[in-house]
Each structure stands twice: as C-alpha cells, then as structure tokens.
Design brief:
Helix content of chain A: over 70%
Number of strands of chain A: 0
Oligomer: homodimer
CATH architecture of the largest domain in chain A: Orthogonal Bundle
Distance between the termini of chain A: 50 Å
CATH class of the largest domain in chain A: Mainly Alpha
Radius of gyration of chain A: 19 Å
Shape of chain A: elongated
CATH superfamily of the largest domain in chain A: Tetracycline Repressor, domain 2
Structural class of chain A: mainly alpha
Largest sheet of chain A: none
Largest interface: A-B, 31 and 31 residues
Strand content of chain A: under 5%
Chain lengths: ~200, ~200
C-alpha cells in the first residue's frame, strides 16, 4: 500500500477509532458538552464498547490529551537517540519542540481550545508529558558530558533549567499569545547562551 | 515628620490622588464598570477636574497601568546604576524583578485582575515597560563588557535573550499559574547558564 494512503477507519485499532471520534466531537462541541454517549453514537456502537476501552469520560479525555501531547514529544525522540554533537542535538530538539507547539496551537485553534480545557483537568497527563521532555533533555546532556562537550554536575537539574530558559517558545499560553511571532533566530539566541553555559559547566 | 507616617491625602499631587482613587475603584469594580464619573464622585470633585489631568477614561486607565508597572521597574534601576561585577548585578536584577512580579500578582490578586484587563488595552504602556526592562539589562551587559566580564557583540540582542530565558519568572500569566512555586534557586539555575553564556561570548 503506498505510504500516502490513510488506512480505512475499520483497519484502525478500536482504541484509536474511539479517540479519533472523541477528538472530533471535542473540537466541535468542547469538553463539557461531549459525553461518552455522543462518542458511542458517532461510532454507531454501544456505551459498553467504549467503557471496555476507557473506564470513564475523564479517562477518555485524559487519553485524548495524552495522544495530543505524545504527538509532540514522540518525534523529538530522534534528537535523543541520534549520534553527533550534543549541542547541535539540543538546539535541534528545542527548535523542533517549538515548531510542534506552534503548529498544534496555531494551526488548529479549535482543537487547542478543547485540549486546553481537557488538560486543565488532566494534570497527571501534563506532568507525565513534562517528565518526558525533562528525560529527553537529560539524556542529551548526559551524552554531551560523556562526549566531553558539556561540564554538568546534575544533568536532570540542568535539563530543567534548559526547559525553564526556553519556556517562552513552548508554553501553550505564551505561544498562543505571541501568535508565533518568535522566530527560530530568537530561539537560537537563547540557545547560544544556554549551550555556552552547559559548556562552561554552569549547571 | 517621621518617615513611617503617610502624608495626608491632601498633600499628594492631584494626579496621584486621582490615580489612587481610580486604582481603588478598578480593584473593587473592574475596568468595565469604573467610569470617570465614579472617580470624580469618590474624590468629591467635578469631571472637568479629572479631565484636566487625563483626557479620557482610556488615558486614566493607561496611567494606572503605567504607575503599576513603574513600581516594578523603578526599584530595579538600583542594579543598573550601582558598581560591582555585572554578573552579580544581572542576577540581582532578575531576582528582584521576579520578586516584584510575584508580590504584585500574588499578594493583590484583585488589583492584578483589574490591571491585567487594563493592560490588555494599554499595549503601548506594556511595550514601554518591556523597553525599560531591555534598556536596564542592556546597560548592565554593556558595563560587563567594559569591565571585561562579558564577551557580547550586540548588548541589546543579548538583553532580549536574557529576558526571554527568564520569562518563566516574570511573565504575569506564568507567575500566576505557578502560584509562586518557582524559587530563587530555580532562577539562579537558569541565571548560571545565562551568565556563563554571556561570559563565553555566546550572544
């Protein structure tokens, strides 16, 4: 099958089909007005079938938020696993994160508004996402130390400082408020400072 | 007169008394429900007297926002003018800014909510405030270059990068959302990276 053809709905795992339907309804009606019954109706299946996959409306909404956030963090894994100078990988990671957030937030504002309301209630999912980001950056920094590029005592602490220093470019509220006005060169200006700091052993 | 005694209202310049009254009313009723008539009534004076100082309700609200923001930036000037290592002054400046924002936002949430609504409409005032912050940081960085501490080509660009890298600690939305959870040691961790970057000539 050529790569560009989306598999027909029926070929997708049921869990994904339920999430697809929930996402469409959330986008259209918002989280308060989207019930498990609505999702079941859209898929022409029983409530019971939904509840086999998600134990509650909250669990279903959490899963939507989780999938949304995983779509941001999963492609970043490439910068974690690939070879090469850690400084370049770290900059690439931040640029890719910022780009993914801009796309998610600015290209699909309806879904973002729905997601944002869901995420407010799904703190565990958001915390898990942030922990994933910290873990990815920590791994890159540890590689940088091994390769003799960075002088860092506590890589996890340094990773948190890197995420703090770049929050302007990946925090949903700030990305939305800026309307994507921050350019890659703004990000690179901050990353130059941050990377020089990691090289100098400031963290 | 002992220093601790506030001068009686009548001793304050009229402009300040009008702003005091407007601030009290904004805090209590919000910007939409606070009119020039309300302010005049609270001060037992005529509209005309208010309009002698502020040409419109918008001008009065802008002045409230401006005073609010000046109360944040004016004390930071001490870090700009004092002698000593630029790195230490820059860290002190960021810590003081973060502290002032925390105090303004968390200690007086009613006024902050009113201010925030006013500031949304007073973009020029906010831009002016941000320009003041950039100017202060630029001056400290220029001193650091003169003193041989920092290697920086474009001090204004470096100053903007420093403000971006610390936005987590001074952006109203993030300060409010964190509820002041970010500590001075979180700020210092970021500033270590930033200052090492300025020393290494990364900006």
């Amino acid at each position: 099958m050529p790569k560009s053809i989306t598999p027909p709905d029926a070929a997708r795992p049921m869990r994904e089909r339920i999430l697809d339907a929930a996402e469409t309804l959330l986008r259209r009606h918002g989280p308060a007005k989207t019930t498990v019954s609505d999702v079941a109706r859209a898929l022409q299946m029983s409530h019971a079938n939904i509840y086999r996959h998600f134990e509650s409306k909250a669990a279903l909404q959490d899963a939507v938020a989780e999938r949304w956030l995983d779509a941001v963090s999963a492609p970043l894994e490439a910068f974690v696993t690939k070879k090469g100078p850690a400084a370049k990988r770290l900059e690439g990671w931040v640029l890719a994160l910022a780009k993914a957030k801009r796309r998610k937030i600015l290209d699909d504002p309806e879904l973002f508004a729905a997601y944002h309301a869901v995420a407010e209630a799904a703190r565990d999912v958001v915390e898990h996402h942030l922990a994933t980001l910290v873990r990815q950056v920590t791994t890159i920094i540890v590689d940088g130390v091994k390769q003799g590029e960075f002088k860092v005592k506590d890589a996890a602490q340094a990773a948190r400082a890197v995420l703090s220093a770049t929050v302007r470019f990946h925090h949903p509220h700030l990305v939305r408020a800026s309307g994507g006005a921050d350019t890659d060169s703004d990000i690179k200006a901050v990353m130059k400072l941050v990377i020089a700091g990691l090289k100098a052993g400031a963290a």
